[in-house]
Amino acid sequence: MRVRHLLALAATGSALLVVPLAEPAAAAVTASTSGTTLTITMTGNGSAPIACVGGKVAVAAVVAAPALACGSLTAVTVTGDSGNQTLDLRDLSAAGFSGTTTTNVSMGGGTDQVTEGPGVDTIDLGDGGDILTLLAVGPPNASVSLGASTDDRLDVQGGDGDDTIAVTASSPTTSIAFSGATTTTRSATGAEYLYLFGGKGDDHLSTTGIVAGTTLSTVILRGEDGDDVLTGGNGAETLYGNGGTNELRSGGGADGIWTESSTDLVDTGADSILDYVYDTTSYRIDRDLDHLGAEDSFHVQANRSDVVTRIRPTGTPGEQRWTVSLHRTGQLVFPAGAAGLLAPSHFTSGAPNHRSLVDVVAGPRVVDGVGANGGPNLLDVTVPSGGWEVTTAGPDNDVVGVSPDDSTYQYVRMGRTADYRVHGPWTDRNRGFAHRATRDLLFRFASDGELEALDAALDGGSATRAQVTALLMGSDEYRGLDVDRVFLTYLRRAADPGGRTYWINSIRNGKALWRFRAQLFGSSEYFTKAGGTNAAYVLSAYQDVLGRRPDPSGQAYWTNKLNNGADRGSVALQFINSPEARRRLVDDQFLRFLDRYPTAAEQTTWVAQIPSSDGEQRLVAFLVNSSAYFTRD
Fold first, then answer.
1. Nearest of 181, 106, 79 to residue 138 by alpha carbon
2. Tens digit of pLDDT for each residue in 614-633?
3. Distance in angstroms (rounded) separating the CA atoms of residues 128 and 19
């Protein structure tokens, strides 16, 4: 069942293997030299860093005896025991060493991490769940074995240039061909987990040479920086595009494809095997989905704060439009040829204030997803014609399925649903407005009594739509949602009761929402959670405020300003009130309420008004009171 798969994936985060890392405690290290050979013995948990100190070979900051000039070192022998030990042979690439030192490494039964060096290496990691990293530089290794354990991981790291890394595997050997300026091949035996990292540059990663029956159970390809091409093989693999404009091509297995850039090309292949495509950051109409087959599913990851997902037929046969607002901002049209099911995936950490709304008009494609962990999550389904059947499943009956009677429309199903409504098109427009306005502004459904009262007031003329909107937006319930949203977005937590009350009162008394955001965004708590450095703060600022990765010049500019003493609060205000941030906010609200982007004129008008104390509130009221909102589905 796909919902069960989604719930399982949510529980495991990104579904990656988590291999325990070596303990940080210091190992007992002895080091000695004989001729031009260095011998290291490691006991217990820890590492044995090799360095050139005063021109002499040193291990763990102690010069080995008898002293040996770094440039004269030709070989290193390392022996470990059952401790969890770390050895980075890239140390032998440091200034002073020849860069051609050979190594012979024999580790014991612990969880060890070894990175190969610049020379010819012979490595045996022994028993235990180990991690071996192979690099794109240097000559081929003499012999590499990850040992007899069933949870060993092989990491393959590309360099700074444009690399082509092609993997072939037949049990028990995995071979990696690096093709850059020169081509080298490395091999390792006994790997169960394979991680390919492209590194910097425009890289090509391919696992098409992996055949059935290998020891590999998990294969992950990561493009990292640059414009990369990732091509999966015949097994069940995971492809991560990360930054840049990438081509992500599935192989013959049941693959997971994680796309971050709006310009990525995603190809799930022509096979009939179920592939999962996850959009983790960007969400734009220019997404190129090639060969998204009927057995595939497209998931939008929305991992924080309130999220609104709207799915509608476009009017063109077979097409559906998917709009996301609040934590994510964007829109995408699925052409008729992209037949895969649509899966809103609102995975969160489970804070009680994490909410999601999935608002669907049933159409030609299955919608099958999962709400936020922690909720409350709302599902609102419009069936354009005919009747429908509603079923619930799961221990808490929170998996809600809607099956239209008319076969023109596919079923809708969502997991972790706290409350739902299913109805036909609103023939009573006032009643439909009361339903939508309460849902969209207060993130809950109107009670029967509220709906009757608002409908009667609108029908009888005792209240206008503008007055109903003002009533809802003038409540502390509405202001509290704004407070919750800002805390979850910037501090990754719910507000404490006292702080929540304080900020509700401040907004009621005229505090501009953007100033409130800037205070939390500029706080020490945000700085610490972002990573505690100016560079990490700037990276988080771009992601949380502008919804994108920083360009290199922007990252450098703002980091340098902070490093040179700029006030973080002032920087926060400049980010929050920047034209780009205001344009994104205006886009977000138009998508949220009207399911479309603003025109250029609308964008200009409202971007100029956002800095006022009630600019955002006036924008929301304008949209909710508009004729387009009143007459929408």
1. 181
2. 999 999 999 999 999 999 88
3. 11
Distance from C-alpha of 586 to C-alpha of 137, rounded to nearest angstrom: 48
Handedness of CA 476, 478, 484, 486 (dihedral sign): negative
Cα–Cα distances in angstroms (integers) from residue 285 to residues 320, 329, 367, 586, in the given order: 12, 11, 19, 17
Domain boundary (150, 183, 210) is at: 150
Residue pair 187/144 in contact by the 8 Å Cβ criterion: yes
- Return the sign of the alpha-carbon dihedral for residues 340, 418, 400, 2: positive
User: Of 61-75, 147-161, 340-354, which range is least confident?
Assistant: 340-354
Q: What is the mean pLDDT of residues 158-169?
A: 84
At 304, the amino acid letter reads: R
Q: In what order do the strands lie in the sheet with 419-423?
A: 330-334, 320-326, 307-313, 356-361, 377-382, 419-423
Give yes or no for a cis peptide into 172 (omega within 30° of 0): yes
How much is the pLDDT for 246? 87
C-alpha 466: how far from chain center = 39
Within 66-117, strands assigned E span: 75-79, 85-88, 102-106, 113-115
Give the residue numbers spanning the domain of 490: 480-630
Partners of 547 in the beta sheet?
Answer: none
Contact assessment for residue 494 and residue 485, using Cβ atoms and an 8 Å cutoff: no
Contact call for residues 165 and 145 (beta carbons, < 8 A): no
569 belongs to a structural domain: yes
Half-sphere exposure of 66 (CA within 13 A, CB side): 4
- Would you say the C-alpha torsion 481, 485, 491, 493 has a positive or negative sign? positive
The pair of three-digit structure tokens given for residue 188, joined into one six-digit string: 């390792």
CA 409 and chain centroid, separation = 31
* Pairwise CA distance, residues 440 & 448, whole Å: 17
**Count: domains in the chain:** 3
Please report whether residue 531 resides in a domain.
Answer: yes
- Contact between 154 and 135 under an 8 Å Cβ cutoff? The reply is no
Do 75 and 43 sit in the same domain of this protein? Answer: yes
377 bridge partner residues: 356
Output helix, strand, coil percentages for the chain, rounded to the nearest 5.
Answer: 25, 30, 45
490 and 625 in a single domain? The answer is yes
490 and 614 in one domain? yes
The residue-averaged pLDDT of 90-95 equals 94
Q: Are residues 463 and 543 in the same domain?
A: no
Q: What is the CATH number of the domain that holds 592?
A: 1.10.3130.20
Residue 428 token pair: 């009573």
Task: With both helix axes pointing from N to C terminus, report the angle between 600-609 and 579-594 in degrees, rounded to the nearest 10.
Answer: 120
Cα 558 to Cα 544: distance, rounded to the nearest angstrom: 15
pLDDT in tens, 20-43: 444 444 568 999 999 999 999 999
Q: Which of 538, 502, 587 is nearest to 324 (CA)?
A: 587
pLDDT at 178: 82
Cβ atoms of 401 and 412 within 8 Å: the answer is yes
- What are the tens digits of pLDDT across the range 336-360? 766 566 777 665 544 556 678 999 9
pTM: 0.73
